[in-house]
Write a sequence for this structure.
């Protein structure tokens, strides 16, 4: 098949038929354990969730300038517009930002530079004007049109399953490697039975009262978490980097982590009803997010069941008690492993004593692109945890 020159191509928001076509294509890659109908139905349900509503989710296609609505588009991806915070001076400022997902080129179009070009063009439709080069490169043809409602973002993030290089090379100009760079791809894993055994044998003193968080109360806890993040960011003087950013877990972002997997966990027996825990002065008191965890369950066959911690705020002295509670929950649901991303440095030592092992992951590498004049080396991604995965 003859490759189309990039000068004839551009990035467009997908029309309804293209969204469906894109989902049918990606089923081959990401539909494990589901039929095509189930996969499409899950996305239709997900479209109604807060994370996607109000045009927060957009599917983009790379297609010829003269047939933007073609169903034979060359590749596609998705963006989720989200709320974040950016700290440059004393106070964190609210920021618009993006999660990028589902980058896909059908096998017949692969290795022709299409995905790379689409991702380069994506900057030109989601980044602020002042962060882009002054001239759109002539060899790329006409500049992509801005789309009404696609408010420029302060940064964008994606999770690479194709190594650290591919997305870095998707720059704002040809042959420029100012694309997305990897940041903090660490995982800590606990074997549930082993850790439970270690912890159960230890002396229990001054135990905390725990409040189990169902769908409604975990949502409430994420809302509270936002204020804490803002507060912590204002006082994050121990962070050596002058600019810091974070996604916020509310407005459907953290919730997406378990709603996305509902098709699988709702078949569990017993069906899970709790999605987090927090320390509390009493079982009825409102959630206290100073000791707080939320999670999702990855129970998709044929792999063994995993509980993935999505948000975690805990003092090192309380980690042991918290993990003990989580292992008890995990055992009830036949979960073998607990996984957490980018555990805070202050928790690493304790986690080792609890049997946790920490390593660099090779997949889902968190990568960010900063849309500002600052050097990426001066940027810190705070709370780079699983809650903002997409
Ligand atoms: C990854 C994917 C999107 C690449 O699409 P593509 O249109 O073939 O990519 P490009 O032609 O633009 O690739 C440009 C360069 O990226 C690199 N690259 C391409 N696919 C790669 C992969 N799977 N792993 C690592 N590097 C890759 C190559 O260096 C390539 O240059 P080359 O062909 O000269 O060697 C496509 O293979 C795909 O859809 N895979 C399945 C879904 C997936 O894994 N998506 C990514 C999720 S993060």
């Amino acid at each position: 098949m003859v490759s189309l020159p990039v000068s004839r191509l551009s990035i467009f928001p997908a029309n309804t038929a293209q969204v469906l076509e894109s989902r049918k294509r990606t089923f081959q890659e990401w539909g494990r354990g589901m039929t095509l109908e189930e996969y499409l139905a899950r996305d239709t349900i997900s479209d109604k969730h807060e994370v996607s509503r109000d045009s927060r989710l957009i599917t983009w296609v790379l297609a010829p300038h003269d047939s933007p609505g073609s169903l034979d588009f060359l590749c596609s991806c998705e963006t989720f517009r989200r709320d974040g915070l950016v700290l440059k001076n004393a106070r964190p400022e609210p920021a618009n930002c993006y999660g990028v997902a589902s980058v896909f080129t059908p096998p017949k179009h692969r290795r022709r530079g299409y995905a790379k070009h689409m991702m380069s063009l994506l900057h030109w439709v989601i980044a602020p004007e002042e962060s882009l080069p002054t001239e759109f490169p002539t060899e790329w043809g006409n500049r992509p049109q801005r789309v009404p409602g696609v408010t420029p973002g302060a940064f964008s993030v994606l999770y690479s399953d194709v190594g650290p290089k591919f997305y870095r090379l998707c720059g704002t100009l040809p042959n420029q490697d100012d694309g997305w760079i990897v940041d903090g791809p660490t995982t800590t894993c606990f074997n549930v039975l082993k850790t439970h055994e270690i912890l159960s044998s230890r002396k229990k003193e001054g135990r905390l009262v725990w409040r189990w968080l169902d769908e409604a109360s975990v949502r409430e806890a994420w809302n509270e978490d936002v204020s804490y993040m803002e507060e912590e960011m204002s006082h994050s003087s121990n962070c050596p980097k002058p600019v810091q950013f974070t996604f916020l877990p509310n407005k459907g972002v953290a919730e997406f982590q378990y709603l996305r997997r509902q098709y699988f966990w709702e078949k569990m027996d017993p069906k899970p009803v709790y999605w987090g825990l927090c320390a509390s002065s009493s079982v009825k008191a409102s959630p206290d997010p100073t000791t707080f965890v939320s999670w999702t369950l990855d129970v998709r066959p044929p792999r063994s069941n995993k509980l993935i911690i999505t948000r975690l705020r805990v003092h090192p002295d309380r980690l042991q008690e918290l993990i003990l509670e989580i292992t008890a929950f995990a055992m009830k649901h036949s979960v073998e492993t607990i996984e957490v991303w980018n555990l805070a440095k202050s928790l690493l030592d304790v986690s080792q004593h609890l049997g946790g092992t920490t390593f660099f992951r090779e997949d889902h590498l968190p990568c960010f692109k900063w849309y500002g004049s600052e050097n990426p080396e001066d940027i810190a991604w705070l709370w780079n945890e699983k809650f903002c995965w997409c």
Observations:
- The mean pLDDT is 95.
- The longest helix spans residues 215-234.
- The chain has two domains: 6-182, 186-360.
- The two ends are 32 Å apart (CA to CA).
